[in-house]
Structure formats: C-alpha cells, structure tokens
Amino acid sequence: MADITLIEAVNLALHYEMQHDPNVVILGEDIGENGGVFRATLGLKQTFGCKRVIDTPLAESLIAGVTVGMASQGLRPIAEFQFQGFIFPAMEHLVCHAARLRNRTRGRLTCPAVFRAPFGGGIHAPEHHSESIEAMFAHIPGLKVVIPSSPQRAYGLLLAAIRSNDPILFFEPKRIYRTVKSHVENNGLALPLEQCFTLRKGTDITLVTWGACVVESLQAAETLSHHGIELEVIDLASIKPIDMATITASLEKTGRLLVVHEAAKTCGVGAEIITRVAESAMCLLKAPPKRLTGFDTIMPYYRNEDYFMIQHDDIVNAARELMEGWQ
Amino acid sequence: MNIQTQPMHRYIDHRGNLIAPLPEWANDTLLQQFYRDMVLVRHYDKKAIALQRTGKLGTYPSHLGAEAIGIAIGSAMQSTDVLAPYYRDMPALWARGISMLQNLQYWGGDELGSSFPSISPDIPHNDDMPFCVPISTQCTHAVGIAAAMKIKGLHRVTVATCGDGATSKGDFLESLNCAGVWNIPLVFVINNNQWAISVPLHLQCHAEHLVDKAKGAGIKGIMVDGNDIVAMYDALLQSLDQARKGKGATLIEAVSYRLCDHTTADDASRYREDEEVKQAWQFDPIVRLKTYLINQNLWSEDEESQWLDICHQRINQAVEQYLALTVQAPESAFDYLYEKADPDLHYQRDALINKAMRMEKQNSGGNNG
C-alpha cells in the first residue's frame, strides 16, 4: 500500500474495526453522507449502513450521552466531535458519566467508548477551532487520553482505543492530518496504549512532546545534531496515563528534560511530567527541566496565529539554553 | 394551584371514585398488589429519613407523594426492559426487583448499592442504569440505550425518568428531539411534582403543560394523573407496547406533588406555603387507592394492619442487614476505575492503604486509651 495521510489512517482503522466487530458503531454530526468535516468517516455509511454509521442531530451533549448509553449496553461506540473546541457542551457526560460508570456500578456497567476530536491550531480556522485542552481531560479520574502524531500511530492507537474497555479521548492533531504521510500496514494490529514512542535516539536532551509538535521537534533535533547536540525525541502519545518509565530511562542517558506542547502553559501536561520527574528522578537531572508551551492566552484569530504556534526555532533555542546555561 | 383540575388521563379521582371504566388489565389482585407496594415504599421512605436523621444514612431524597408513579413504572416494565432512573426513583427500582437493602446501601454511601443483581433469568446481566444525580443527563443515556436495542434488533424498551426541573435542561430537549428523529423504543416519564427544589413550575416553564414539549419533538405525549396508579400503569402499558412494536417514543407527564422536602438537606417550609402542602395531601395516591379498594370490598383495615406488620418486618430486616454490612475496603476506589490500573495508580493505591492502616491504628489506639 502507498503511503497514506494521518486522516486516511484514521479512516482505515475505522473501516477495519467495523468490519471485524459488529458492536462498533460510529456517531456524530455530518459523519454519514459527508464523511465528517475532515472526511475521517468517508465511505463508512456506504459500507456499513445507517444503523452503524449514525448522523446525529446537532447536539454535542446528546452525542456524548448517547455514546455512554450505547456503551453501557455492550456496543463500542465511537463519537466524533467536529472540533475539540465544540466539546464543552459534552463535558458533563464525559466527566460525570463516561469516566464514572464502571466505578459507580462496581464494574456492572462499563463505558468502552472512544470520543474523537481534531484539535490544535495552525490551519487558519475560525474562532473556537484551535483549542489544545488535553490537560483538562487528563485531569479527570476514569478517562484516558491518547494523541497520535503519525499515520501509523493513528491507525494502531485508534484500534487499541476502540478495543479498550475504558473510555478514551482520542485527539487528532488536525494540522498534520494531511501533511504527514507514511506506510501503514492494514493488518489490524493495535499499538500499545499507555506507552511512549521513542522516535529518535539521543544523548544530550530528552525532548518529550506529542501531536503536531512532533514534526517541529524532529526537525529541530536534526538542526541541533549539526551543532553537536543530540536530542532523544519521545512522542508521549498516551497523555493519560503517562509512561514515566520510558521518560526516566531516557533521562538516565541525557540528564536534561525539555517538554514541548502546544497547549497553554499553566497546569498543562508539561507541568505534570516535570513534577513527576522532580518527585522521583530529580537526581538524574544535570539541569533544571524546561518546558516550551503555548501561551496562557486565548488563541488569536489566524492573522496572528503563527506567533503563537511553536516553531522549529523555538525548540532549537530552548534546547540550546538548556545545554548552554547548565554545562 | 389545583393540579387535579387539569384534563388528564385518570380513572380514580382523589375521593376514590371511579370516573371511567377500569381498563381490562385492572384485576383485583393487581390493584391490591399496587396498594401493598405503595404502602411498603412509603413506610420504607419514613424509615430512611429516620435513619438519616440519626446519622445512619447520608443525604436522602424522599419519594413521598411519588409512590404511584414509581410503582407503576417498575410494574409495567418487562424484566428485559431497561430503566434509566433519576435519584427519586426508589419505588420504580423496588417494583423492578431491586431491594430496599440495595437502596439503603446507595444512600448510605456505598457504591455497591448500584451493582444491581440480575432481576430475571431472562436477563442474567442487569442492564439498568444507576441513579442519575446530574439533572436530565439520564435522558440522553436512555436514547443511547434505546438506539442500541434497535441496532441489535432486540425488542427491549428503555424508560427514562426525570423531574419537572429537568425539562428545562438541554439534555432533556435534545433527547426528546433525537428520540423522535430516530423512532426508538423509549418512554420518558416526567415526575411533575411542581417544585424543582425551591423553584415552582411556573418559574420553570411557560408552556401550558410540560407534555406539550412532545409536540416539538414529534413524539406522542400523554398527560397523566400521577397520583392515580391505574392511569399511570395504563399510560405506561400503552407507551411500552407502542415502543415495543416499533412505533416510537412517548413522553408521559405524570402530574403529582412533592409532599416532602427536596432531600433531607432541604427545608421546604422556607419557600412553600403550608396551606399548599395541606391541599396537596388531599390527592395522596395511597389514600385514593385505599378508599377505592375498601369501597369495592377489596381491602379492609384488618388486612391493612396485617400488611403494615409485614412491611415493618421487611423494612427492619433490610435495615438490620444494612447496618451489619461490612464497609468496602478504601482501596476499592482504585479497583473499579479502569479495567487495569496503571503503575502510578498502583503507587497511589498502596499509599492509600498505608494511610488507612495508620488511621485505623490511631483510631483503635484512641479508643483503647
């Protein structure tokens, strides 16, 4: 198979799992005939019919609640929110019900559901279309949060998410929906959840990132390599739970930690990673850890958007500061 | 306010007089069973409040005045149907086979109170949802459950219940709307008890009747006297049958009155006139059916006395069992959160166990000292 885009990989995984598990249904706005606003669900309704590919009324709270109800009865629903910024009406169901059903009923009822949403900025979208709020969901006991950063991981992680018996928020970095391509074997093999992916080996700095920032991070690593600084680039992928073992093992080699995320700084996932390192692996560090994040502002409209996106140079500079200031 | 002047589905008026011929299903045995169930859950309710007042139960929402609605719902549903209840629905759960002990366990602060056992050999796994405390969210879950039944080709109906306050929320309206569009096997029952904590119905909704909201969703609506269990059961049988035959969803507005405080943490006398409550007692669903049964020679004070003895025995037995229950281990909060806990949760679980052991030791040391 030729290389495919991240969004095509999402579509491929949905096709595969619907073909192999009759309990999988998908629902959301515009997902049927239209194939979703980004075409993630293209062709599914034609293949699996309107009982399993369900266009819902335009009501996000309803979509989430219906998903919880379906999941409680043994289906494996996959809900699509058109944009992460539209997920707020659904929060009550995600926090109060999806996250709690197993615990509340002591395992009698569970919520094996996936809630998909494109997220992040950088595509000149209108207001409310550029949020990166993964930390909000990671904060909720009972939820898991997964973010792929390549077609191959989108395919494998989505399969794993659908097969998981826990509710999962699956956030897709829409900025790289069509800009990254790779080979994906359509073999139905899921990737492990709850595990980081080390994308580049290095000896000087452990760079932990996820989503679209993976692209700039790898570019920055190449640039820095020319200047003698070798980054180990880790794609966090599972935002909750966090695989600290992989991060700590990397720090044993590098002794320096740089976390890069597009989301706002305060109470972001970067703060969590750095705190955990401080709590249990402080002695591994040769320098104070550093984070490069979005600003604590509302994302501006797109004329100023680029200033707020993390650029390749930002990462290069942050890595140099981390090396130079504490050698 | 005189809720009994509204035109609505009703067979027995508040004086116990028949105002329409009883439906065919209404045999003597069933009406007597309804009465016995309503009396039992009312006395259970009194006991639960007493337990709360003496520190043996957590905050508890009384169902005083809602007995006819709940018993009718639980009795009319088939064991294979699915209930998505709100927090005031103990009578419905009781009539579906969920024990008083289970209810005490839930309000007594134990999650095992929602791990309902099977209620029928037909359905080994109990699929009923637990009590829903957030307002009206259970309505959207019910849409999902009913849609799941349709997708699976099962002839099982879902019943969602809520109070009048819930009808103001988007989830309620979104659910009705979707139930209409998808033509799913679903029955909504609003317990219109006139008060959403301290907010009266006229400040909740400007529509003439809550059931009018069914029109906007294109589903059938029935306004029923919620204090007349015959009318309630009849409306439910019709609605469940329609749903089971693939003819879509129904909204039932059960017009009643909350004869109690909102919960044991509430004091309704702060916002409600005594006179209004006194008036509402005239329409008590239990007195109404009792009067009717006595007039028909289907019940007597002797039978009443015997039944009360049985009720108290059963309630006391449930309370004794409840008070003797072993508290779940503190670490159980970790054991059901996910299918499998991650390493950090294991660490937190161990930390909690250590803390609990330390506290136990301190407590036992304090007692000894």
UniProtKB/TrEMBL annotation, chain A:
Pfam families on file: Transket_pyr, Transketolase_C
InterPro entries for the chain: THDP-binding, Transketo_C/PFOR_II, Transketolase-like_Pyr-bd, Transketolase_C
GO-annotated molecular function: oxidoreductase activity
Top-level taxon of origin: Bacteria
Keywords: Oxidoreductase, Thiamine pyrophosphate
The protein's required cofactors: thiamine diphosphate
Domain called Transketolase-like pyrimidine-binding: residue spans: 4-179
Function of the molecule: The branched-chain alpha-keto dehydrogenase complex catalyzes the overall conversion of alpha-keto acids to acyl-CoA and CO(2). It contains multiple copies of three enzymatic components: branched-chain alpha-keto acid decarboxylase (E1), lipoamide acyltransferase (E2) and lipoamide dehydrogenase (E3).
Name of the protein: 2-oxoisovalerate dehydrogenase subunit beta
TrEMBL record, chain B:
InterPro entries: Alpha-ketoacid_DH_E1_comp (IPR050771), DH_E1 (IPR001017), PdhA/BkdA (IPR017596), THDP-binding (IPR029061)
Record carries keyword Oxidoreductase: yes
Domain Dehydrogenase E1 component: 36-321
BP-aspect Gene Ontology terms: branched-chain amino acid catabolic process
EC number: 1.2.4.1
Entry annotated with the keyword Oxidoreductase: yes
Molecular-function GO term, any one: pyruvate dehydrogenase (acetyl-transferring) activity
Keywords: Oxidoreductase, Pyruvate, Thiamine pyrophosphate
SUPFAM superfamilies in alphabetical order: Thiamin diphosphate-binding fold (THDP-binding) (SSF52518)
Substrates-to-products reaction catalysed: N(6)-[(R)-lipoyl]-L-lysyl-[protein] + pyruvate + H(+) = N(6)-[(R)-S(8)-acetyldihydrolipoyl]-L-lysyl-[protein] + CO2
Cofactor(s) demanded: thiamine diphosphate
Purpose of the protein: The pyruvate dehydrogenase complex catalyzes the overall conversion of pyruvate to acetyl-CoA and CO(2). It contains multiple copies of three enzymatic components: pyruvate dehydrogenase (E1), dihydrolipoamide acetyltransferase (E2) and lipoamide dehydrogenase (E3).
Subunit structure and binding partners: Heterodimer of an alpha and a beta chain.
Record PANTHER family: 2-OXOISOVALERATE DEHYDROGENASE SUBUNIT ALPHA, MITOCHONDRIAL
Listed name of the protein: Pyruvate dehydrogenase E1 component subunit alpha
Organism lineage: Bacteria, Pseudomonadati, Pseudomonadota, Gammaproteobacteria, Vibrionales
